[in-house]
Design goal:
Length: about 170
């Protein structure tokens, strides 16, 4: 049985425009004798073995770029990375470390890439956490990924620029 929100709670209103989910008609008449009622909050199963977080189902935020409550589909690559910055609104920077082989010296060198990722309000992400991200359509000039899972930080003081392979 799918998890659904118990009753309608008005969405968080902290923008100039009225915030409501596109897929939900708020002013519908509630029939008394109906056994099966559609939930008043739109949520989606992303697929690929990714579980929808409880905060997305029971929360009251509106985010059209969220893969669980918005209109963004996850397709393409699924990656893991370390959160290094949460200073932007709904966007985080993750660091992906990897080894690059130098044929001439027959050795590896350490390299890294920083990726801008959209982070839905369903996740409370802090610096040092490990997140799983999924590729989606371009959401802005630099953002092409979305957070789909979150693991709290294990090493408290590993440092932002320390090399970590997952």
């Amino acid at each position: 049985m799918p998890r659904v929100a118990k009753e309608y709670v008005e969405c968080d209103q902290h923008e100039k425009a009225y915030q409501a989910q596109d897929a939900v008609f708020i002013a519908r008449k509630r029939a008394v004798g109906n056994r099966r009622q559609k939930p008043m909050r739109f949520t989606r199963n992303v697929g690929l073995g990714i579980r929808t977080p409880a905060t997305a189902i029971e929360g009251n935020y509106v985010d059209k770029k969220c893969p669980f409550t918005g209109d963004v589909s996850i397709r393409g690559r699924i990656l893991k990375g370390l959160v290094i910055s949460t200073k932007m609104k709904n966007t985080i920077i993750i660091r992906r470390d990897y080894l690059h082989y130098i044929k001439k010296y027959r050795r590896f060198e350490k390299r890294h890439k920083n990726i801008a990722v959209h982070c839905s309000p369903a996740f409370s992400v802090k610096d040092g956490d490990v997140v799983t991200i999924g590729q989606c359509r371009p959401l802005s000039k630099t953002v092409r990924f979305n957070v789909v899972a979150h693991e709290p930080a294990v090493h408290a003081k590993a440092g932002k620029k320390s090399f970590r392979v997952f």
